[in-house]
User: Which sequence fits this backbone?
């Protein structure tokens, strides 16, 4: 069983100032740390990109194998530059021993290193859908912009960066046991090309869903998987629910981000209250498991 007061916030890429490295999730780190310390003054959060140095990689894997962490928040922006296979074997071991895992990637094939997961996490690569592994992928393009031709299906448009979407609460679950801005719903950051997630097993429950502003199609926003005998796995359709840029557009983004931002949250900071309460709830739930 992972130590409930030890947490890890990790990206699947090495530090790159012009990418979605872990430094672009500093507000999420602040939320996790504050929630953990509220639960237990001994709470500790480790924040890291995936190490380049071999010795540091081995140290990370040793920490995972030893059961050091009770919860891991995995931000997966990789594109064929993700962790080596030994990392995934260690991650599987950690979750099998009881560590809770939060996964967030994005559109098309970002985060496709997750296809390496096996064993107790074999369903992750089916729940998180990728262009390269979805044989019955719909041919229609949810997002089409000549200035961002590399962004293709599968993805769903829920709004602009810096704006919000209204998600429907789809399950009565302790993760959602807090007062939200709109009863039965959550107001959370939007993104113009979220990834697609879909439940693939009886142990998985759709937690939140929202609607495409392009097609009107309902999409799964969060799926929780609670299989007996291992830690919880919580899937999110995009890491932009948690990115600094989506909570505060003045934080900036990599230069390949061409979508025009919104000022919704900047103009009304109260719109970030639900995502803060949600992160707090997830941290507390993982600490108490």
Assistant:
């Amino acid at each position: 069983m992972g130590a409930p007061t030890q947490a890890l916030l990790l990206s699947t890429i090495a530090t790159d100032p012009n990418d979605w490295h872990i430094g672009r999730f500093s507000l999420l780190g602040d939320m996790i740390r504050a929630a953990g310390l509220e639960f237990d003054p001994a709470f500790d959060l480790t924040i890291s990109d995936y190490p380049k140095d071999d010795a540091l990689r081995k140290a990370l894997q040793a920490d995972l194998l030893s059961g050091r962490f009770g919860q891991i928040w995995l931000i997966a922006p990789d594109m064929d530059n993700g962790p080596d296979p030994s990392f995934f074997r260690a991650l599987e071991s950690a979750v099998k021993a009881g560590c809770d895992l939060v996964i967030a990637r994005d559109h098309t094939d970002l985060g496709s290193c997750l296809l390496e997961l096996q064993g107790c996490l074999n369903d992750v690569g089916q729940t998180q859908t990728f262009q390269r592994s979805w044989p019955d992928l719909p041919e229609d393009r949810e997002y089409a912009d000549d200035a961002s031709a590399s962004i293709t299906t599968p993805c769903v448009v829920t709004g602009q960066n810096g704006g919000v979407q209204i998600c429907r609460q789809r399950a009565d679950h302790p993760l959602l046991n807090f007062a939200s801005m709109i009863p039965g719903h959550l107001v959370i950051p939007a993104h113009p090309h979220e990834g697609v997630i879909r439940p693939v097993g009886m142990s998985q429950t759709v937690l939140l869903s929202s609607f495409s502003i392009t097609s009107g199609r309902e999409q799964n926003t969060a799926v929780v998987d609670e299989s007996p005998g291992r830690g919880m796995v919580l899937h999110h359709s995009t890491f932009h629910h948690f990115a600094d840029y989506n909570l505060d557009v003045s934080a900036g983004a990599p230069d390949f981000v061409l979508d025009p931002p919104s000022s919704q949250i900047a103009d009304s900071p109260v719109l970030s209250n639900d995502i803060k309460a949600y992160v707090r709830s997830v941290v507390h739930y993982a600490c108490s498991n």
The radius of gyration is 18 Å. The longest helix spans residues 273-288.
